[in-house]
Design brief:
- By secondary structure, the protein is of the alpha/beta class.
- It has helices spanning 42-49, 71-75, 93-103, 109-119, 135-147, 165-182, 193-199, 217-224, 229-237; strands at 2-13, 16-27, 31-36, 57-62, 65-66, 78-82, 153-157, 185-189, 202-207, 210-215.
- The model has no long low-confidence stretch (mean pLDDT 93).
- The relative contact order is 0.17.
- It is 38% helix and 27% strand.
- The protein has two domains: 2-77 and 151-237, P-loop containing nucleotide triphosphate hydrolases (Rossmann fold, 3-Layer(aba) Sandwich), CATH 3.40.50.300; 86-150, no CATH class.
- The protein binds adenosine-5'-triphosphate.
- Residues 4-233 form the ABC transporter domain.
- It is found in: Cell membrane.
- Pfam families: ABC_tran.
- InterPro entries: AAA+_ATPase, ABC_transporter-like_ATP-bd, ABC_transporter-like_CS, ABC_transporter_ATP-binding.
- This is ABC transporter ATP-binding protein.
Length: 239
């Protein structure tokens, strides 16, 4: 069974059709990358899949359920991280995680928060205020928050955008491990082609609101007669 199905999703903002009949799926344990130029419609698509905005047409099905009709049931098993979402600045790192653990009704919240602090190597930062952290440190707290409820579907909008190469590498390894161990499905946007090649089982390329190419990194490179995803991106982006 597909964990996530986007079915002919459409979103318009005034005269702009940001997402134009987009359909794709993410299977159990699968990591799918959603790629495209700035403004291609990736974040708008993610926001519809998370129920943050309502599609003008089409349907989102998660765990076989219609998101519009089973919102609470679905969203309790989903989580999201994006570098552009701010967590409350005056709160300490462990206070933020405690608050979300309670919000998600996590069982044994204290133990789960401690586990996430360990997993994301946040020990030295647990007593620091969110507003005092560097952007890379905030990203790690975002990811800890996103993993708190052991989501069956994890949606990540540019998860490693603010991380230095060492932290980025560790986080990529960690996320791949989480997907492998828990069988969680992941949907990721990224402008880092090496990251996508390393992490994603399948890739959907968006251009001007539509999916224009889909496949594994190797299939896409073969199809476009190039050596890697970076070159596929340039070919797709330049039409
Ligand atoms: N709230 C909004 N109001 C008006 N237009 C919007 C809104 N959100 C997005 N758009 C427009 O929809 C299109 C798709 O934007 P979106 O943020 O989905 O792109 P993206 O692929 O995520 O880009 P990036 O790689 O830069 O993050 C763009 O033309 C954008 O200007």
């Amino acid at each position: 069974m597909a964990i996530l199905e986007a079915i002919k999703l459409v979103k318009r903002f005034g005269p702009v059709t940001a997402v134009d009949e987009v359909s794709f799926g993410v299977g159990h344990g699968e990591v799918v990358g959603l790629l495209g130029l700035n403004g291609a419609g990736k974040s708008t698509t993610l926001h519809m899949l998370l129920g943050l905005i309502t599609p003008d047409a089409g349907q989102v099905r998660v765990f076989g359920m219609d998101l519009a009709r089973h919102r609470v049931e679905v969203l309790s098993q989903v989580n999201f991280a994006a570098s552009y979402v701010d967590l409350p600045g005056p709160l300490l790192v462990h206070e933020v995680l405690d608050a979300f653990a309670r919000l998600y009704a996590v069982r044994r919240p204290k133990a789960r928060v401690a586990e996430m602090i360990e997993l994301l190597e946040l020990g030295p930062l647990r007593g620091r205020r969110m507003m005092d952290l560097s952007s890379g440190q905030r990203t790690r707290v975002q990811l800890a928050k996103a993993l708190l409820n052991a989501p069956r579907l994890l949606v990540l909008d540019e998860p490693t955008a603010n991380l230095d190469p060492d932290a980025g590498d560790r986080i990529r390894g960690l996320l791949s491990r989480v997907a492998g161990e828990n069988g969680s499905a992941m949907l990721i946007t990224s402008h880092n082609m090496r990251e996508v090649e390393r992490m994603c089982d399948r890739i959907c390329f968006m251009a001007a609101g539509r999916i224009v190419a889909e496949g594994t990194a190797a299939e896409l490179a073969g199809h476009y007669g190039v050596v890697d995803l970076e070159e596929v991106f340039l070919k797709v982006a330049r039409g």
